[in-house]
Request: fold
Amino acid sequence: MIKISGKRAGIVYFTAPRQVELREESLPALGADDVLVETICSSISAGTEMLVYRGQFPHVMDSHDNLSSDLHYPLAFGYSNVGVIREIGKQADKALRDRLVFGFQPHTTHFILHPSSLILVPESLPAEACSFLPNMETAVNLIQDAAPILGERVLVLGQGVVGLLVASLLKEFPLEQLVTSDCYELRRKASNEIGVDDTFDSISQTDDHSNSTENKNSRSDVEPQSKPQSGYAQNFDLTFELTGSPSALDDAIAMTAFSGRIVIGSWYGEKRAEIDLGGAFHRSRIKLISSQVSTIAPELSGRWDKARRFNVAWEALRRIQPQKWITHRFPIDKAEEAYRLLDENPQETIQVMFEYQ
Reply:
């Protein structure tokens, strides 16, 4: 594992499509009100980060907390950093020393921030669970935007980390039926362990279908084609599209009932796919709802803010304990191997994590 000493940090950079390197850089001087954080762990986003890894991201995008909206290689990227405050500026609160904190930071061994840009971790939550905070906040946002109704039939397409978190939260609702779908057996198994009513494989398996968030293979730029299960045609009141594959919208439309809702939580980056809106969709009155975690839904913003939503997310992390879905841990100096695994053998993974100590 990399050893960084003094006032330097090791930072993971995406330098070109499918090229990653760890760079050692000098840290800025510690400001009077700032703190120095030593990272314990950080999680890879198998959706957003793999778009960056593969070069499938738009160069201008909406910002996510501390992330830049102007994205170009070389690029440090990530937003699930958990660490311990090791140094305190002269005017910072001395009680912060040795506190466990969360930061929306790229994968880095150390970083300096003002305490207002950090989130203090609640007591008794392990660091690994805390690294799931951004995905749990996303899952809470998706549920709030969907507003499930007592007795509804609900489908979750995609059982990556966000999909599993959404399914776990939905399991707490009094639904008539909760069904999930994923193209990977490992993730369907994890979904079954949540206690969903059914889970099925929705994507055809061929040798040259590859690189959406939830695909089977790795090195092609061809989108997979989904095969909805006929037994669920027009069955669901509420569907979540969380696969990362634009073509999965056709599945969502085919399996959502008249006047149902489809919540689209995937970020497709620059991927495109033809969507069939000329068939039953035209008369279906299905609502397509875009959902992204960087804002609060306008109808909730009078009563909800980010702090309140974070509190809900922390308590959900305590209940669900998503660290059970960590399948791989890599030292930070093996970052290239971690991303290659996600690119070439995603069927073996759920959550891949970097360790720093």
